[in-house]
From TrEMBL:
<keyword id="KW-0863">Zinc-finger</keyword>
<keyword id="KW-0862">Zinc</keyword>
<dbReference type="Pfam" id="PF05495">
    <property type="entry name" value="zf-CHY"/>
</dbReference>
<protein>
    <submittedName>
        <fullName>Uncharacterized protein, contains Zn-finger domain of CHY type</fullName>
    </submittedName>
</protein>
<dbReference type="GO" id="GO:0008270">
    <property type="term" value="F:zinc ion binding"/>
</dbReference>
<dbReference type="InterPro" id="IPR016694">
    <property type="entry name" value="UCP017292"/>
</dbReference>
<keyword id="KW-0479">Metal-binding</keyword>
<dbReference type="InterPro" id="IPR008913">
    <property type="entry name" value="Znf_CHY"/>
</dbReference>
<feature type="domain" description="CHY-type">
    <location>
        <begin position="16"/>
        <end position="96"/>
    </location>
</feature>
<dbReference type="InterPro" id="IPR037274">
    <property type="entry name" value="Znf_CHY_sf"/>
</dbReference>
Amino acid sequence: MIYRRRMAEVELGGRLVDGQSRCEHYRTELDVVAIRFACCTPFWACHLCHAACADHPAVVWPADDRGAHAVVCGVCRSTLSVTDYVDADGCPSCGAAFNPGCRLHHHLYFA
């Protein structure tokens, strides 16, 4: 079952547990980003949520599309480009810290 929640101007998909994009898989204080795959519209709480809820396999963002606004901060709803996100430790708009462990999963989202 997919849970979708509207966050300001973005749509979140996944097994959400709160309004800041945390899901049943990742729900620490720092898990406040959602990422859109190149294959679909919603920002997904995590790669496991996409695998469980989407009706298609995930497609990563190609290396030549690093300017795509594929990440949303769950705290302030600002979107970030792939480049801005991979270089950030937190949201440049509101200062919310991001989980540094997410760097281990970048290859699941970005080529």
